[in-house]
Design a protein that fits this description.
Layout lengths: L2 H18 L4 H18 L11 E5 L14 E5 L3 H7 L11 E4 L12 E6 L9 H10 L1 E14 L2 H9 L12 H9 L3 E10 L4 E10 L1
Parallel strand pairs: 1-2, 1-4, 2-3, 4-5
Antiparallel strand pairs: 5-7, 6-7
C-alpha cells in the first residue's frame, strides 16, 4: 500500500477524533440519522431502500447508513472500523444488531453475495487502488440493483493536474472530474441514472451518482 494512502488513513481517523470531540453521541447520531433521511429523500426518484433489501455500505465510517437502516441486513465495510470502535465513544458495533461490520479495505473485500443497494459515500477517492475498488463496488450490485456513490469532483483541469503532483489534499489520494468518475462506473456494467450536486465548491463539487446494474 502506498504512502499517500497510509497518510490518508491516519488523517481520516485524526479528523474524526477532532470532529466529534465536542459533540455528544445522542446529538450527533440524531443529526446523522436526519442526514441519511434527507439524502434518501433526494434519491427517491431513482432508488428507494425497502426493508427487505440487502445493503452493502463501503467506506461506512463510524456513522454510515446503518444508523438509519435498522430493519435492513447491512454489511458495513471500512478498514478503520476497529479503530473507530476503540477510539470513538460515538460508535459501538453492539448498537447495530442488524449490521455486520467488516474491517477491510474495499479492494480486499470478498463479495460473496451481491446486494440490492450498494453505497460508497465519500470513500472511493480515499482508496489505495481505485480501479480495483471500483471493480469490487460495482461487482457487489445485483442485477437490477442500485449503486449510490458520492464523490468530490474537480471543476478545473489545471487544479486536478496540480493536486495530483502536490499533496494539496492528502485525505483524497485520487483526483478526478465528474466525467471520469461516471466513465469508471459505466465501464463496469452500471448504467448511470442520475448525478445530483449536493455541494458546490470552487475546486470540487460534491456529487452523488446513482446507477443501476444492467
Amino acid at each position: 500500500m502506498n504512502i499517500k494512502w497510509r497518510i490518508a488513513q491516519y488523517l481520516e481517523l485524526f479528523w474524526w477524533k477532532r470532529y466529534l470531540h465536542n459533540k455528544t453521541k445522542a446529538d450527533y447520531l440524531k443529526w446523522k440519522k436526519q442526514y441519511w433521511e434527507n439524502l434518501f429523500k433526494k434519491l427517491e426518484n431513482d432508488v428507494v431502500v425497502q426493508h427487505s433489501d440487502k445493503v452493502i455500505d463501503f467506506g461506512c465510517g463510524p456513522a454510515g447508513c446503518f444508523v438509519l437502516l435498522s430493519q435492513n441486513k447491512v454489511i458495513a465495510v471500512d478498514p478503520l472500523i476497529d479503530k473507530y470502535q476503540h477510539s470513538l465513544s460515538h460508535f459501538a458495533k453492539q448498537d447495530y444488531l442488524n449490521t455486520t461490520f467488516v474491517a477491510s479495505t474495499i479492494e480486499a473485500f470478498n463479495v460473496n453475495e451481491q446486494a440490492d443497494v450498494v453505497l460508497c459515500m465519500n470513500a472511493i477517492n480515499h482508496v489505495n487502488d481505485i480501479d480495483c475498488a471500483m471493480d469490487v463496488v460495482c461487482a457487489a450490485v445485483k442485477s437490477g440493483g442500485s449503486l449510490v456513490i458520492s464523490i468530490d469532483a474537480h471543476n478545473y483541469s489545471f487544479l486536478k493536474w496540480l493536486f495530483r503532483l502536490l499533496p494539496g489534499d492528502m485525505l483524497h489520494p485520487h483526483q478526478y472530474n465528474l466525467a471520469e468518475y461516471t466513465s469508471m462506473i459505466e465501464s463496469r456494467d452500471i448504467r448511470v441514472l442520475n448525478t445530483i450536486k449536493l455541494t458546490k465548491g470552487f475546486v470540487f463539487d460534491y456529487y452523488v451518482v446513482v446507477g443501476e446494474r444492467r
